[in-house]
């Protein structure tokens, strides 16, 4: 896993991670913003694949997708808890 020593891989992986995190921070999930985040994530993963290979792209893309899914899950969970508390005390 020599690609982990490459600074360009880390920058591209951080870009993919940030792009995968965008939907979790959007209050109204609009299709345009989701498509832009998907385009940015795809561009970062494709750049990783072209520069370092398929294994590096799987590592960067997989970690960023897992992070994005976890953030989305926590965002939905906390917004549901907040709405439940608002309904109970209003």
Shape: elongated
Mean pLDDT: 89
Distance between the termini: 55 Å
Tell me the number of helical segments per DSSP (H or I, 4 or more residues long): 3
Strand content: under 5%
- Helical amount among residues, as a percent range? over 70%
Largest sheet: none
Concise synopsis of the structure shown:
By secondary structure, this protein is mostly helical. It contains 3 helices and no strands.
Describe what you observe in this structure.
This protein has 90 residues and is mostly helical. The protein has one domain (2-89). It has 3 helices and no strands. The longest helix is centred in the C-terminal third of the chain and has 36 residues, at 54-89. The protein is elongated, with a radius of gyration of 16 Å.
Please render the helix and strand layout as text.
Layout: H1 7-25, H2 31-52, H3 54-89
Helix pairs in contact: 1-2, 1-3, 2-3
Give descriptors for this structure.
mainly alpha; 3 helices; elongated
């Amino acid at each position: 896993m020599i690609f982990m020593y490459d600074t360009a891989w880390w920058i591209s992986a951080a870009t993919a991670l940030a792009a995968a995190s965008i939907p979790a921070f959007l209050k109204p999930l609009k299709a345009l913003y989701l498509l832009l985040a998907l385009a940015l994530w795809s561009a970062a993963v494709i750049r990783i694949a072209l520069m370092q290979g398929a294994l590096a792209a799987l590592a960067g893309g997989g970690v960023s997708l897992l992070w994005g899914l976890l953030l989305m899950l926590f965002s939905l969970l906390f917004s549901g808890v907040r709405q439940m508390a608002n309904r109970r005390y209003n």
